[in-house]
Amino acid sequence: MTQLHISTQFDSGAIEVVSLEDPRNIQVNIRKDSAAGFAQWFHFSLQGAAGLAVNVKFLNAGASAYPKGWEGYRVVASHDRQHWFRVDTTFDGHVMTARVKPETQCIYFAYFEPYSWEQHLDLLASAAASPHVTQECLGHTLDGRDMGLLRITDAQSSISLAEKKKVWLIARQHPGETMAEWFVEGFLERLLDPDDAVSRVLLQRCVFHVVPNMNPDGAVRGNLRTNAAGANLNREWLEPSMEKSPEVFLVRQKMLATGVDLCLDAHGDEGLPYNFVVGSEGNPGYTPHVADLENTFKTTWMASCPDFQDEFNYGRTEAGKANPTLATNWVAQQFACLAFTIEMPFKDNAQLPDAATGWSGARSKKLGASVLQPLLAVL
Ligand SMILES: [Zn+2]
């Protein structure tokens, strides 16, 4: 029998090997973020197990950041790193076990379909080929990566720049929530499609500012929730600093320069098997006008995309009880505008499940493309 081997030496690789003696009892531990206590993201390859009945046991699953995330969850796997499928997975409250018979000598496992830094650079490059796109580097992360921004508008439109609505889309503040960058990819593909009437009108009326990856260091390090300094970026919006959270500092600075009329912040949720949004109703500055915009946005999105729903979510935050350190709350309060956190599932959409893939990169892309319709409705 070929010797079994596990590797994490690649972009977003993360796992700790406990035992590789027996393919039916491979034991691993989920690793913590590189500078913080959150343990949830994993991504690794297993070599030497072709045709064998493999059980991978995640021994510390019950002690991870969100143990409820493993209830009803199935591990994602791939033989070719292009097509990802779900494997039979159980969770007994302590140990999570994934069962699979690898078809080839190397199989990859991940918490969710990965989105690598190379893919990120490909995404920026392909978007920059459009005449409507300007690519900008806002500054650098603690590990020295570019904070890339895409500015997108139809410069030929008769509407002046000052009159155009300033729309922001940011994603992956929590770097392990890779569905968020898949969402951005789908959004950009449709927005830059010259045959799409909705996109053409949006580009005439709006200037889009898109940050596809808010946390490049955390993404490459294989973190679930934090950057190189261990900061949870979605708790940094009130007082970001170049020492601890340059990603937020730089993007916030740009927002203050451009102004914001609408902001979407894309995330993934470990627990709930649904797509939903979280608004800013707990802000002191929340108004009936913003509530109307929220309703129009949600109603239009539900009508145009059955993968979006408004029944299952976190519930409403009491008036005045909003956490002002979250991007959505800070933006909505600062600019008196509509802002949503978009949550996609790590598991599946329970209302439209897919047994083979669960919620996936491709489905996140479709959802990202579909958000242009509610954008048109509110603008
Ligand atoms: Zn998140």
Automatic annotation (TrEMBL):
Gene3D superfamilies: 2.60.40.3120, Zn peptidases. The active site is at E343 (proton donor/acceptor). Residues 107-379 form the Peptidase M14 domain. GO terms for molecular function: metallocarboxypeptidase activity; zinc ion binding. GO terms for biological process: proteolysis. Its cofactor is Zn(2+). It comes from the Bacteria. Belongs to the peptidase M14 family. This is Peptidase M14 domain-containing protein.
